[in-house]
Write a structure and sequence with these properties.
The chain is mainly alpha-helical. The chain is 55% helix and 4% strand.
């Protein structure tokens, strides 16, 4: 106890007037970055501003929501009937009841498995911290307040907040902290176990849903790292059959080398967007054009122009788009001659059969390859699919080096924030002029301290997700969902290391080093200096003194939740752009679409809040109810945002859970380390530490139990026992000539429709004057190389039936009334960024209609669009009815060895003969929507046209 008292006496001596120089004062600041002069006022300021602004922003949302559904309910406007959330009334409070009453099993259908898991995680945190608040505050606040009464007489200026910390008590009373640590571990493990079981039920419900059972990716395997001698369709089948034989052989497809095709399409899209931006600015006022035509520098990727001088932007970009279209067509037609790639896909007849093979192949690597369940086609990062194991390993090392460098660079500003912004009194010690201002109005600067430091800290981390997402792309992630999981991992590690550990204990480490240096100057040995430095006491005191900062920081999270609800950032951004910039029609349409939900960022924030609260729970118990209040508010507000505003860009089916589970256990382990540090500093009992030594083993055992009990059920859908997966499967043999696995899992560069420049219709009459290139009147198939997103047929007038539309050149004109995502949500160039594969809007690309011989080949409602897509994709029709292959893919072994199945099983039950419609009823549901008087083309189904 004498050793700890010496620290307090030293702190008391430091508070006395000193003749140290300014440089010495500057160095002394690093040992105690958050003193008690204005910390109580700062915490109160954070509480007042947080709750006040949260209430104000929420009320503002309530009254704005009924009159701005484009911003506050885009999902309600655009989703189909199955996925649309409950309708909302015009009352300011009408949104509350649907959020409260919508149950979890409906959420899986309405918003998807990923969003449902996110909401369950927020509710788990809410309930967990409510229980922890009751237990922690009931035990720790009385213990801390009454346990330190002996020292309050010596230091009368101790604030109420600091009396709740454990730094003023010593001895056996720390058994209460050991008991609290065990209680916290048991509570957290219980909530994780309870929700693990719930996630298993949700995953089973997801696996058995009609959408999953009808999707092609659910019964398809992805094979990576295929040896060179097996890079054929037959080789893919051989690999998966080596893992596990099946009665019904799979369909295998090997991928082909796209080479420059993806880059050409990317350049084409960039050129289209550049041309749209140029025209939007130049034609902003069609009645008064600028005197000079827009100019631009040629693209660095354009090898046809060597000059760096500026050229006419409209003519150059239009010509470049035309040239790129011709090159894309030429490359697409030559894909058949390209070499095979080290990855492919194998499709099975049933979902459980595919999952059984994937489970049997887990960890086996047949023929050196990697076999796993295929993701959704829209989830694949195609440019990384061909990357070898060695390249991924090397890129991963480089990626980690970049993250280490970023962490090291951030240490310096992090230290300055920890020293000065967390306590402005420290800034006054080295800046006399500011010290006078601080003394003149301490209440004002207390409010600034409570708001400024957490705000600046949060602002920096706003840009981190984009940085880590880019690094993960370079590291070789093959899917977007795996990239987001890795981004979450790296963000969490960065936050915990840099913003929690280094930020929190730097002052203690600085004092520890300076004590050793001082002892060495007094000719003490290094060991004596270490014994006298009392490093554990320094760390415990530094963490206790820093706890008001984290309390203020957590209080401000409520304001962030309200700002998310108000969508003030999106409102301000779009309003500013509309008024002061020149948005293109495409941008105006995209701004009305539901924004994608950033799971990586939000999961990282919640995990970090949880880690901070658990680590400081024993040092400042008030962080527990503050965190509980935050999750109570945000779990409710986020449910509205997920139901009515955001969409899941790429559905993963809830695979985030294991990352969340592991990070929660790590946060609990970190909290146990903090408790052990406090006990070692002032508890003076190795017995206490020995008792706490069992906590890491408790967490490890719990993790292994959950892994063995639940993980297989979460990862695989197998109706039979997993013990029987090595035996051959049984089931009805089904024809899979309609799977179209080559198309669905072919590189999108093969068949992706090309973007067309969009121009506002108000400027249509000027195109003939400002555009010097081709128009409809002088365009034929040769002028666009027989390949274009616009000129597959003559454009017809929308207003005069049977009349050709006026000449427009290679542009798409958009009226003011059409600048809404509702009119474009089924087009690939819009749907991909704002709804994944179209499932939200009722037209998923990955859907296989059971019992029929076709899948969705296009998400366009227009027959001409379907024909154009077919032509541009280089598709050819073969002898198998209903089967289409893009250039670059061959018939699979199953297709070559099979003849057309003449039975009616799984095609059209009780179907009439070919070419004859059943009297009295349409052949297919599509014919029920056929326009009156249209020709009956149901027989085209058997020609492969449908």
């Amino acid at each position: 106890m004498d050793a700890s008292f010496s620290i307090f006496l030293r702190r008391d001596d430091d508070a006395a007037p000193s003749t140290n120089s300014s440089s010495q004062d500057f160095l002394n600041l690093f040992s105690n970055p958050f003193q008690t002069q204005i910390q109580s006022d700062a915490a109160l300021a954070s509480l007042g501003t947080s709750l006040g602004f949260t209430l104000l922003v929420t009320l503002l949302f309530c009254f704005l929501r009924p009159y701005n559904t484009v911003v506050y309910a885009p999902r309600l406007r655009h989703a189909d009937e199955k996925h649309a959330p409950p309708p909302l009334g015009k009352s300011p409070w009408a949104w509350i009841k649907p959020v409260l009453t919508t149950k979890e099993h409906l959420m899986v259908e309405k918003v998807g498995m990923d969003a449902t898991l996110f909401l369950r995680f927020t509710r788990m945190c809410r309930n967990m911290f409510l229980v922890l608040s009751i237990v922690g505050c009931a035990i720790l606040i009385p213990v801390n307040v009454f346990g330190g009464k002996g020292l309050y007489k010596q230091w009368t200026n101790i604030s109420v907040l600091m009396k709740m910390t454990p730094q003023y008590m010593f001895g056996e009373i720390y058994w209460a902290f050991v008991a609290t640590a065990y209680a916290f571990n048991i509570i957290i493990c219980f909530f994780l176990w309870w929700n693990y079981r719930a996630v298993v039920r949700l995953r089973k419900y997801y696996f058995e849903s009609q959408e999953y059972q009808s999707s092609l990716h659910a019964r398809t395997l992805m094979i990576n790292d295929i040896p060179r001698d097996l890079r054929t369709d037959e080789g893919v089948v051989k690999i998966v059959e080596e893992a596990k034989m099946a009665n019904d052989p799979p369909r295998g497809v090997i991928s082909r080398n796209m080479k420059e095709l993806p880059d050409l399409i990317e350049e084409h899209e960039d050129a289209v967007r550049d041309l749209e931006a140029v025209l939007a600015k130049y034609l902003k006022n069609p009645d008064k054009l600028p005197p000079k035509r827009p100019m631009c520098k040629p693209s660095k990727k354009d090898k046809s122009i060597n000059s760096k001088e500026k050229v006419d932007a409209i003519d150059y970009l239009t010509g470049r788009i035309k040239d790129l279209e011709a090159r894309i067509k030429e490359v697409r037609l030559s894909i058949d001659n390209r070499n095979a790639m080290p990855y492919g896909f194998a499709s099975y007849g049933t979902v459980d059969e595919a999952h059984g093979v994937a489970f049997a192949a887990k960890g086996k690597h047949p023929q050196g390859s990697t076999v796993r369940l295929a993701p959704r086609p829209t989830d694949i990062i195609w440019k990384n699919m061909a990357m070898s194991k060695q390249d991924r390993r090397r890129n991963g090392i480089i990626n980690n080096l970049w993250i280490t460098l970023l962490t090291a660079v951030w240490i310096v500003p992090n230290i300055l924030i920890a020293v000065f912004l967390t306590n402005l009194a420290n800034l006054g010690k080295v800046w006399p002029a500011f010290q006078k201002e601080l003394e003149r109005d301490p209440k004002l600067w207390a409010a600034v301290q409570g708001i400024l430091s957490p705000a600046i800290t949060s602002l920096f981390y706003y840009f981190l997700p984009a940085i880590f997402r880019r690094l993960s792309m370079l590291a070789g992630d093959t899917t977007k969902t795996s990239r987001d999981r890795h981004v979450t991992n790296k963000l969490y590690a960065f936050f915990v290391l840099n913003n929690l550990v280094l930020f929190s204990i730097f002052g203690a480490l600085w004092q520890f080093v300076s004590d050793i240096i001082s002892a060495r100057r007094e000719d003490k040995s290094a060991w004596e200096a270490l014994e006298d430095s009392q490093v554990f006491s320094h760390i415990m005191i530094a963490l206790s003194n820093l706890s008001p900062f984290w309390l203020s920081w957590l209080l401000q999270r409520n304001l962030g939740a309200a700002i998310d609800l108000s969508q003030v950032v999106n409102l301000a951004k779009s309003s500013f752009a509309r008024r002061f910039m020149h948005p293109t029609p495409r941008q105006l349409i995209e701004w009305t679409a539901p924004p994608p939900f950033d799971y990586a960022s939000y999961y990282n924030y919640f995990l970090f809040y949880t880690t901070v609260a658990l680590c400081f729970a024993t040092l400042q118990p008030l962080v527990l109810p503050v965190t509980a209040i935050y999750f109570c508010i945000d779990s409710f507000l986020k449910k509205y945002l997920v139901m009515y505003v955001f969409v899941t860009k790429t559905e993963s089916g809830g695979v985030f859970w294991r990352i969340l589970f592991n990070r929660m256990l790590f946060a609990m382990l970190l909290s146990d380390i903090v408790v052990a540090l406090v006990v070692k500093a002032n508890g003076y009992s190795w017995v206490m530490l020995g008792v706490m030594a069992g906590l890491p083993f408790l967490l490890l055992g719990f993790k292994l139990y959950c892994k063995r009990t639940f993980d297989q059920q979460i990862a695989y859908y197998i109706r039979r026992s997993l013990k029987d997966v090595e035996s051959p499967t049984t089931g009805d043999k089904q024809s899979r000539r309609s799977d179209r696995v080559a198309v669905r899992f072919g590189h999108p560069a093969l068949y992706k429709p090309l973007m067309t420049p969009m121009v506002h219709a108000k400027a249509q009459h000027l195109l003939g004057e400002i555009y010097h290139g081709r128009l409809d009147t002088d365009t034929d198939a040769v002028s666009v190389a027989g390949y274009s997103d616009v000129y597959s047929m003559k454009n017809m007038s929308k207003t005069q039936a049977g009349k050709k539309a006026p000449g427009s050149g290679p542009f798409e004109f958009v009226n003011e009334s059409e600048l809404d995502f509702e009119n474009y949500k089924k087009r690939p160039d819009f749907r991909g960024e704002h709804g994944g594969d179209g499932e939200l809007y009722g037209r998923p690309e990955d859907l296989i209609r059971p019992g029929t011989g076709r899948t969705y080949t296009s998400n366009s409602d227009s027959p001409s669009q379907s024909e154009r897509t077919l032509k541009e994709g280089g598709s050819v029709l073969d002898g198998a009815a209903g089967t289409t292959y893009p250039a670059g893919y061959h018939h699979t072994p199953t297709m070559r060895e099979s003849s057309p199945d003449r039975s009616t099983e799984n095609i059209l039950r009780a179907a009439a003969p070919m070419g004859v419609a059943t009297p009295g009823e349409p052949v297919s549901p599509e014919l029920e929507r056929k326009p009156l008087g249209a020709a009956d083309t149901s027989y085209d189904y058997f020609r492969g046209r449908r």
